[in-house]
Amino acid sequence: MKRVGTWLGGKSHNASTQSLSALDEPQHLADAMRAASEIMNDDVDAAEVGLSKGNSAFHKLGKGVVTFLRATLGFEQEIMREASERLADAESTAAEHQRHAQRSPTAYRSSIYPVGSEFALCHAESQLMSAVVAVLNESLTESIKGFYKLRTAYKTLDGLLQAEDRHRGGASASIASTSRNSLDSQRFTGAVPGGFGNESMSASRTSLPKPPTERATPATLGNGVDDDNDDDDEFEFVDADEGLPSDSVPARYLGHLVTSEPQGPFQKLSLNDEHPGSGILATTKVDYSAQDEEADLSDFSNHPVDEFIHSGSNLCFGILQLMLSLIPPAFSKLLYIIGFKGDRERGIKMLWQATHHNNINGALAGLITLGYYNGMIGFCDILTADAYPKDRCRALLADMRERYPRSHLWLLEEARMHAGDRELEKAVDLTSKSSRSPLKQVEALQWFENSLNCMYLHRYSDCSASFQKCVTLNNWSHALYYYIAGVAHVEEYRLHKASNPKLAQVHAKKAADLLNIVPQHTGKKKFMARQLPFDIFVLRKIRKWEHRAKEWGVEFVDAVGVSPIEEMIYFWNGYKRMRPEHLETSLARLAWSQSSANPLWAREGLDEHAILHVLRAATLRNL
């Protein structure tokens, strides 16, 4: 008998402990994922309304995803707390439903995964998002708890992916071997993997153990709660069978997903009629699904539950591997808690695999993949030739713009691509002339991106106004916003000091007012219980200028040293995004310090001389 009533908010007291039948489950999964996907169109209200119509583990996971996305986009403590609460609820519900599914004769039985795997994935995904939120929290204790949760999520995801490998015929390597290799082939033999003070770790390379032959069981995937019989000693990393014929792995993706050719005039996509697309997608004719990827599970099953598990496991393990590979060395001891390192290449490959699926998992994978390339990779100078797959990223962006045409997230990524191509003016047009996003966190990101690009373009007044707008939309780092807004007016003061002294004094006052606000906002935000390095930097700068103003008997704005706005451009590696004419402007602004317009240069110390030469060298290198 179907149990639809209990899952759609019925009055049954045992609604949260019932398990869905094989007939009910796909519909509830589809409803929850469809509602959660509304967040990718910037529609929080529609997502919340849709997710409130059900009590399944899928609906609760969807609520967690919605709040998690808002938390990671805005870094606001209140939203982070809400995300933590929702994800904890989703985590406990998924664990409970997995146990009931394992005992229910009507639960869905996949030909690929053990019974209850869909709930195991919900549990692991909730844990992974909880861990990310915990690391972003200002508490070191919460951060450590978050890292430890990753270990449990890892074990669950590893079980799911091993089940896929077995279904493919055992041809693929166990994901566990990836992490084993990342540990320099060290094998844990006695204590909690990676535990502090673990003296039982073998220092020598172990022989290749025999791969497991039994099928993954529900116990393999974990049940979402700590089990006294869960022996950490058995959590080992194994090698894959390397004796495979070279022709057993397909050279390209052979799945049945229709993603090979972008459809429609993507170059004309826009978020409003007044601002048509700027053409960055016009030449996109690349199949982003066909590069060094395994055959998709759609070759073996087209069941929506199997697709959810497959796309979700690729998303989650991809995030896990990528995130762990990006942990700064200063925090590397935290990795001992979970006992392994990340594999960046493997993580990115799995995220690309997840992007093919037209569900919330695919959308999140697309957002993270584009964010990684346009954000992190986009800021780097030293890259290999294939580090940034431009055509593939553009094809992915075109696909996401078609799936979610109302979303400003993809517009933001397009602006970042323009900036990466040194088309800063186009990037500013996209972020400043588009319609307003109903999602506050996305609007804040647009203004922040616009602020940086105005800074690179030397549009100082626009830069200052944009950063002051960020103050009203986001509370992550007001010290950063006020500081750059203030030093932008320092540059305006210098530009007009000789030609228009009256206007220069207006900018001098604005600069002093904004910079005097900065110390009030430093030290309030912490990351893993440590003060933000930028806060320490700007506080020291302002104190130095205040001291020099008194010592030298000059106005505060005249005591400022080598162009602090150029320092900020260097800090964000804006020189990489500038064309020659922009870089020439930077050289001119740096030259002001040594010009006759600055009578205080003779009194500057070695530190300011060093700053000038470093900034000038960076500018010349980019020229």
Automatic annotation (TrEMBL):
Pfam families in the cross-refs: Iml2-TPR_39
Descriptive protein name: Inclusion body clearance protein IML2
Gene: IML2_1
Region span, Disordered: 171-236
Acidic residues bias: start-end ranges: 225-236
Subunit field text: Interacts with lipid droplet proteins.
Stretches with biased composition (Polar residues): 174-188
Function: Inclusion body (IB) resident protein that interacts strongly with lipid droplet (LD) proteins. Involved in LD-mediated IB clearing after protein folding stress, probably by enabling access to the IBs of an LD-stored soluble sterol derivative that acts as a chaperone in inclusion clearing.
Stored InterPro entries: IML2/TPR_39 (IPR019412)
